[in-house]
Amino acid sequence: MKILVTGAAGFIGSSLSVRLLERGDEVVGIDNLNDYYDVNLKLARLERLKKYANFKFIKCEIADRQSMEELFTKEQFQRVMHLAAQAGVRYSITNPHAYIDSNIVGFLNILEGCRYNNVEHLAYASSSSVYGANTTMPFSTHDNVDHPVSLYAASKKANELMAHTYSHLYNLPTTGLRFFTVYGPWGRPDMSLFMFTRNIIEGKPIDVFNNGNHRRDFTYVDDIVEGVIRVIDKPAQGDPNWSGNNPDSASSHAPYRVYNIGNNNPVHLLTFIETLEKCLGRSAIKNMLPLQAGDVPDTYADVSDLVADLGYKPATLLEDGIKNFVEWYKKFYRIN
């Protein structure tokens, strides 16, 4: 198939593109290569992709309406995996406009591109952050998620609402994927595993928020990619049994679905740090801090729909995933 991957220089986007290219799909990757974090890392991810003859990279901004219209008209994609977004919970508190530009305006441009160019299926990244103030565990896509605690989370919830509207109005199949704390090789420098590894190696303190009492459903990047590919290959369909009298948040009469992709096994942050210390053979200097604004204490994914509909459940052990990341980090940064 001919597939558009937005955010192709990103953590998940680059890993997904490799898998799609290796199975023979034609991939057009776009990214704006912004400086939210080290651009050199993004360029290095792209270098992995440029060796494939069936890959084309275009630098562009999803919030640029004209650029998106021209891209969709020219390329005529069959499927779209939309991963480009302004990420980060804490950054959304200090830079809110970046989230509206990228996550709202940019997503609208993607929806319009799909609408007018007969795209067969739009899959897009949502986030576990949408569960916000919810406390019933594990988090289920069938639960109401109307109480976000960060603008980032609100923008992702908005994406799901916008997608449903286009599924309803234009019969566009859309599937939203709520990712749970993705980690692994080629990861983002603003995420905990990357920051912890760097600081432990350099003998610097690590900031441990909520005094280490967080629990996170850490999900290995290869597991995320496998789930994404299965979703791309199975366009959403309407549920004939859906009822407005008892509306289900995860489905619709329209071709619309939402899934969690998580490890279904939450881990305490201190356990996560201990595992990293073992892999590095060094102890961390911990700077214990309170819960930060916008953060949720725990995440825990109910993936029963993913198993039932797509026959898949993430299963990479935390020890293996962190070990793989540490090996990649040392090789990439040439650390003995």
What's the arrangement of secondary structure elements?
Blueprint lengths: L1 E5 L4 H12 L3 E6 L7 H11 L5 E5 L5 H11 L3 E4 L8 H4 L1 H21 L4 E7 L23 H20 L3 E6 L2 E2 L8 H11 L2 E4 L6 E2 L2 E2 H12 L23 E6 L5 E2 H12 L4 E4 L15 H7 L7 H15 L4
Quick gist of this model?
With 336 residues, the chain is an alpha/beta fold. The chain has helices at 11-22, 39-49, 65-75, 91-94, 96-116, 151-170, 192-202, 221-232, 269-280, 304-310, 318-332, and strands at 2-6, 26-31, 55-59, 79-82, 121-127, 174-179, 182-183, 205-208, 215-216, 219-220, 256-261, 267-268, 285-288.
Shape: globular
Sheet having the most strands? 7 strands, parallel
The class by helix and strand makeup works out as alpha/beta
Spatial strand sequence of the major β-sheet: 3-2-1-4-5-6-11
| Number of strand segments | 13
Taken in chain order, the helices and strands follow as EHEHEHEHHEHEEHEEEHEEHEHH
Radius of gyration: 19 Å
- What is the number of helical segments per DSSP (H or I, 4+ residues)? 11
Mean pLDDT: 95
Secondary structure: helix percent: 40-55%
Provide the low-confidence segments as ranges. Answer: none
Distance between the termini: 42 Å
Strand content: 15-25%
Structure commentary:
This protein is of the alpha/beta class. 40% of the residues lie in helices and 16% in strands. It is built from 11 helices and 13 strands. The strands form 4 sheets. A 7-stranded parallel beta sheet has the order 3-2-1-4-5-6-11, with helices on both faces. A two-stranded parallel ribbon has the order 7-10. The model has no long low-confidence stretch (mean pLDDT 95).
